[in-house]
Amino acid sequence: MAKQIIIAIIANAGGVGKTTISTHIAYGLGQKGLSVGLIDLDPQRALDVFCGLPPAQAKESIVEVLAKDFKGKWPMFPAWGHLNIEVCPGHPSMAQIADDLVIRRRGEYTLTDRLTNYPLKHDVVILDCPATLGKICENAIAAATHLLVPIQLEMKSVSGVADLIQWALAIGEDLQLDPAPPILGLVPSLYNHKKAIHRLYLEQLPDVAADLGIPVYPAIRDSAEFKNCSANGEPLQRYRPNHPAAKDFDHIINDVVKLAKKKK
């Protein structure tokens, strides 16, 4: 576990690009020679669709892992034909699991316990979190070594990012995490340079992030090709590798590679 990077991708709203970022980082890391485990913690299971996986039964999903009677065999499936990128699928019944975690003694640490007692083999594990800040996200923060925060360049997201960061820090304090997972950075997503409001918020975001003591990554552009490649169950780097947006994730990927090298 000491050598493993676990990145939780969190946001307090849906549609901000969590799954797009998760899959493209995973594919990029795989191309760099790292092994990656993707865990879909979202009941909407958008990650599984992006990875080209069919709907999973509850017994072959993260639901089985978080169940009280888990026996230790992670349901991991190869993504995109890569031997070094695997996915633990999501399932709609994750909402019920979240309710069950509330009444467990170590409910907030269930995912941590699973990763500790039955560790995955991967260099990097990416947690694609739900948009609701409940027990599942608390589990992700408890298990993570690092956090990544996508943010839309809209007033609601920009104004609410401070609350999200404070919530994540408070969870770290409440759970007495030592160390609490640092935030790798804010990731401006769905950026449209033709929109004046997007350009304005992108200019202001570094000042907002500086007040929070958090770096800002280059923006991930808004492109119809992301919807197209998702519908085909592939990341853009594989679906249209020469598309300019395929390189939008390179800064994040390179930072994670550096973190993984430091851990070895």
Automatic annotation (TrEMBL):
<protein>
    <submittedName>
        <fullName>ParA family protein</fullName>
    </submittedName>
</protein>
<dbReference type="Pfam" id="PF13614">
    <property type="entry name" value="AAA_31"/>
</dbReference>
<dbReference type="InterPro" id="IPR027417">
    <property type="entry name" value="P-loop_NTPase"/>
</dbReference>
<dbReference type="InterPro" id="IPR025669">
    <property type="entry name" value="AAA_dom"/>
</dbReference>
<dbReference type="InterPro" id="IPR050678">
    <property type="entry name" value="DNA_Partitioning_ATPase"/>
</dbReference>
<feature type="domain" description="AAA">
    <location>
        <begin position="6"/>
        <end position="168"/>
    </location>
</feature>
